[in-house]
Amino acid sequence: MSVSKNPDACPVSILMSLLSGPWTMYILWVLCNSGPTRFGALKHLVEGISTKVLTERLRMLEAAEIIYRHYEPTVPPQVTYGLTERGQELIDVLHQLNALAERWYGSEQREHSNIQRERSIHTESSSMSNRESF
Fold first, then answer.
1. 3-state secondary structure the chain
2. What is residue 8's predicted lDDT score, i.e. its pLDDT?
3. Fewer Cβ neighbours under 10 Å: the N or C end of the chain?
4. Taking the alpha carbons of 12, 58, 110, 126 in that order, is the dihedral positive or negative?
5. How far apart are CA 23 and CA 98, in angstroms?
6. What pTM was computed for the model?
7. pLDDT at 66 over 60
């Protein structure tokens, strides 16, 4: 993702195209909550992301000066990512989005997951009972 070099481009449009890429907001949310994080830990925390996509997103955010990359030439090398001052300006926005997401989907989503889990447990126990009766 390259930032528009058009001086007439709308700043909001530029920012939204930067932040709306796949996984980008989730990576920023993890860094916002976890602080500086090594690559392997970040990959673990951003569940489901591939190494390739994580690397691409991190490079894009680093080029936009939203995150920094700190390299330690140890064996094995240690690479840590964190929010720059520019990236830290997003913290309040990320927390506001989290609050909105919790209001809109939080309890509803957890209730749905609990119902699905209970159905699964009930189905498994019914299936076990049916097998035992044969």
1. CCCCCCCCCCHHHHHHHHHCCCCHHHHHHHHHHHCCEEHHHHHHHCCCCCHHHHHHHHHHHHHCCCEEEEEECCCCCEEEEEECHHHHCCHHHHHHHHHHHHHHHHHHHHHHHHHHHHHHHHHHHHHHHHHHCC
2. 77
3. C
4. positive
5. 15
6. 0.74
7. yes
For residues 2 and 19, give the distance between their C-alpha atoms in angstroms, rounded to a whole number.
12
Contact 46, 23 (CB under 8 A): yes
Distance separating alpha carbons of residues 25 and 23, to the nearest angstrom: 6
User: CA 121: distance to chain centroid?
Assistant: 30
Residue 7 CB coordination number (10 Å): 5
In the sheet that holds 37-38, the strands lie side by side as: 37-38, 78-83, 67-72
Asked whether the beta carbons of 28 and 66 are under 8 A apart, the reply is yes
**Tokens 């929010």 belong to residue:** 83
The answer to whether 22 and 11 have CB atoms below 8 angstroms apart is: no
Q: Which two tokens stand for residue 101?
A: 């997401």
Q: Return the pLDDT at 128.
A: 53
Record the tokens describing residue 106, joined without a space. 């939080």
